[in-house]
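Posting this for the archive.
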Amino acid sequence: MDTQTIIAKRIARELRSGMLVNLGIGIPTMVANFVPDDVKVFFQSENGLIGTGPIPEQGMGHRLLTDAGGRPVTALPGACTFDSAMSFGLIRGGHVDITVLGALQVDAHGLLANWMIPGKMVKGMGGAMDLVAGVKRVVVVMEHSAKNEAKLLHRCTLPLTGAHVVDLVITDLGVFNIDRAGGGMTLIELAPGVTLEEIASKTEASYRVAAMAS
């Protein structure tokens, strides 16, 4: 099983029936494929769609059914579409239960940088700033390190998307809980085959190790 699939399946375990869930671009879009049959959630896309289903099979996408990144999605029975004003009203009004976003950097205090690297062309922040400020729970998914550089840091060095906003970080090596109120970062799970020593060697941020992860 590839790393992205492992991460997407782990994210799906965070979902509970009745939740309104926003999925970001990249690995988060895979989560809809792995929701357990007994869990009934509603996926929301900030471009104005509630009721998105699994990614369509090759050649079965519809040009009017896309996620916020323009990639094809399916619509489940009962799905509804609406304008972006209504969509962001749901987000800014605190009606979305959980958002799953990718990241460039996260630090031990829950600061998030996920939209730009200075000097590189970017399309814009999109809805990320609204999501991390308005959604009840923020889950970040990313590779643990990139080009041999840690992505879990003492302090983010890239332009911030939000401060003290991240609740949970899921990487290819483990799962970290972050206490927004200042309690810091705690390693709560190790990925299969990963050791505490490997996590330590690839993490700059300070963190505690929960008993279940040791």
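The chain has a mean pLDDT of 90. The first helix runs from residue 3 to 12.
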